[in-house]
């Protein structure tokens, strides 16, 4: 039996896991930092800790999820929403 | 991959993440294991430094007398004090980073001693997190590998839901099953350690890897984020008031600093001999659970009064330092260091058995998967030898270079590091040229031999190699590692008898 070593959907999945996964983690951390109460330096430090658990878990999900398109769309939509929360003050100022 | 079950997709991920990052992770973990004892290896690599148990106050007094006589007009003095882990007394003059070269003093007499130039135990420490690459590239690669490690660990938890049962399963001498059992046992046994050490390693550089919070809260302004520039300690002294003045006695200053911060590792004196002199005392890294790097206490150099207490961290910043401290084995002294060393060794064993398992598993189906796959497995086999056995060889070769290179060689420390990489490269060439099993045996055997002969080498190249007991302990540890490698080399030879016929029959089948 010949097992397939390479496929386009696998490549797409890998790129989604690494890059879209990082983007999601970045957005998640920014949003958490913005939402945490208290002194900004403390919020910055605490909000960054979960990132190194979130990123590997997102990568796992990207490979566990049945459909590659769902991986891409899920991560990008969630990232956009979280970035909005994380960079709300900057967006308001730019307005 | 569409119709795969969760376990199947996770085991696919585990295999490939393990393979892609396995070699890099093995190198990071092995050098990290050695870096647990970086100071001790450092002492071993500077055999000329005298070993006297002198209390810190006397050593500091002698160092200051020497500095006063030689560098009385320098803008600053720096003194590295003898500590529990290192008996060396070192001095330098000028500003900390840009100052003159470090000199070694005999703590008993205060006279300078000529100590060989070496890259020291710090080489393993630097390689561990920078891979000797231009600084940030290495840090990013190591961070990426660490995420790979976490992905591999998490996926293994999903694959092995019954991993506690599997932990008690060991079927020795059964080829592939044994490799799998060894991989699972080392994986489960120290799973909390694997998770802790990888996670805390990432947190040390958390704001480099994940600057999202800095960007969101401080618009990416790192200076503001770290609170720098808010409190400059170097107060501008009133120029008119500066007059020549005698330095205060160092004894009470050291005693007070030690009372507040624990064992002191180094002192700096700025503006010695002037009325605006300042003495800064820093604790050794490793007497508190939190990482004490950057912590210090400042005294008036003339009156000896405390000018600045060490910053007391609280809440989030303290927690951050505790997490980082966990990675550095910053607490619990030598028993804790040994525990870290052994757990870390188990991590190396887990990664190594995983890598070997990959190739052992596929050796049987090389031909069934086409020429590209066969080529890939062939390359993986060779890389396994060069990374697992070859890196061990390079590490012990680095220690040999320290003893064998001429002491007067210029840029000696750099040459030692080059020897390390040259041996590693040679091991790759060797692994490609020799038959697979032979390459394993020869490299493991040579590494074992070099470890076992390390005390002999020391006694042949030095007059009194074990004057400092730390040097003896380093060599005893090397002998233990050598014995382990010798056992691996011997076992590899044994399994050859079983593996070889199968390989032969395969090639025969191919020819037919």
Automatic annotation (TrEMBL), chain A:
It comes from the Bacteria. Keywords: Membrane, Transmembrane, Transmembrane helix. The chain crosses the membrane at residues 12-36, 42-63, 70-88. This is Iron uptake protein.
From TrEMBL, chain B:
Residues 86-108 are annotated as: Disordered. The chain crosses the membrane at residues 12-37, 137-159, 180-209, 338-358, 379-399, 419-437, 444-460, 472-493. InterPro entries: PepSY-ass_TM (IPR005625). Keywords: Membrane, Transmembrane, Transmembrane helix. Pfam families: PepSY_TM (PF03929). This is Uncharacterized iron-regulated membrane protein. The lineage of its organism: Bacteria, Pseudomonadati, Pseudomonadota, Gammaproteobacteria, Pseudomonadales.
């Amino acid at each position: 039996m010949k097992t397939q070593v390479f496929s386009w959907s696998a490549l797409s999945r890998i790129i989604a896991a690494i890059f879209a996964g990082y983007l999601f983690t970045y957005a998640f951390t920014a949003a958490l930092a913005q939402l945490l109460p208290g002194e900004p330096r403390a919020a910055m430090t605490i909000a960054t800790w979960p990132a190194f658990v979130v990123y590997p878990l997102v990568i796992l999900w990207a490979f566990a999820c049945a459909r590659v398109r769902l991986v891409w769309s899920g991560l990008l939509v969630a990232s956009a929403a979280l970035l909005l929360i994380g960079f709300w003050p900057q967006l308001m100022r730019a307005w | 991959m569409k119709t795969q079950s969760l376990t199947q997709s996770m085991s696919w991920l585990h295999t490939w993440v393990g393979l892609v990052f396995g070699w890099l992770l093995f190198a990071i973990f092995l050098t990290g294991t050695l870096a647990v004892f970086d100071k001790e290896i450092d002492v071993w690599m500077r055999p000329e430094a005298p070993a006297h148990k002198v209390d810190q106050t006397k050593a500091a007094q002698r160092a200051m007398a020497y500095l006063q006589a030689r560098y009385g007009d320098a803008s600053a003095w720096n003194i590295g004090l003898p500590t529990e882990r290192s008996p060396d007394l070192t001095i330098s003059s000028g500003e900390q980073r840009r100052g003159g070269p470090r000199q070694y003093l005999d703590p008993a007499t205060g006279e300078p001693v000529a100590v060989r130039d070496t890259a020291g135990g710090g080489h393993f420490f630097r390689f561990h997190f920078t891979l000797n690459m231009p600084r940030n590239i290495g840090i990013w690669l190591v961070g990426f590998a660490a995420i790979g490690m976490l992905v591999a660990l998490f996926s293994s938890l999903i694959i092995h839901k019954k991993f506690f049962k599997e932990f008690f399963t060991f079927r020795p001498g059964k080829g592939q099953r044994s490799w799998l059992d060894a991989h699972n046992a080392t994986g489960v046994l120290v799973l909390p350690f694997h998770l802790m050490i990888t996670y805390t390693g990432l947190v040390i550089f958390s704001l480099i890897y994940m600057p999202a919070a800095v960007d969101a809260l401080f618009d990416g302004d790192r200076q503001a984020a770290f609170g720098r520039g808010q409190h400059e300690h170097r107060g501008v002294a009133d120029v008119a008031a500066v007059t020549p003045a005698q330095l205060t006695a160092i004894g009470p200053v050291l005693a007070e600093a030690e009372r507040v911060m624990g064992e002191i590792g180094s002192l700096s004196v700025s503006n010695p001999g002037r009325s605006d002199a300042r003495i800064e005392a820093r604790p050794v890294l490793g007497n508190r659970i939190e990482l004490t790097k950057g912590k210090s206490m400042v005294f008036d150099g003339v009156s000896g009064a405390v000018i600045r207490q060490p910053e007391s961290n609280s809440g989030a910043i303290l927690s951050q330092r505790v997490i980082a401290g966990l990675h550095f084995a910053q607490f619990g002294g030598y028993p804790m260091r040994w525990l870290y060393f052994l757990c870390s060794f188990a991590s190396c064993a887990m990664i190594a058995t995983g890598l070997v398992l990959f190739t052992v598993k596929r050796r049987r189906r090389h031909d069934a998967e086409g020429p590209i796959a066969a080529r890939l497995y062939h390359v993986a086999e060779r890389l396994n030898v060069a990374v697992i056995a070859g890196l061990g060889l390079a590490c012990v070769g680095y220690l040999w270079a320290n003893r064998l290179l001429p002491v007067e060689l210029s840029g000696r420390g750099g040459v030692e590091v080059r020897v390390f990489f040259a041996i590693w490269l040679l091991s790759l060439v060797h692994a490609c040229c020799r038959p697979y099993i032979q390459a394993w045996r020869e490299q493991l055997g040579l590494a074992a031999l070099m470890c076992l002969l390390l005390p002999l080498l020391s006694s042949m190249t030095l007059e009194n190699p074990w004057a400092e007991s730390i040097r003896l302990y380093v060599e005893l540890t090397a002998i233990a590692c050598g014995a382990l490698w010798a056992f691996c080399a011997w076992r590899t030879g044994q399994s050859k008898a079983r593996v070889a016929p199968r390989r032969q029959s395969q090639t025969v089948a191919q020819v037919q």
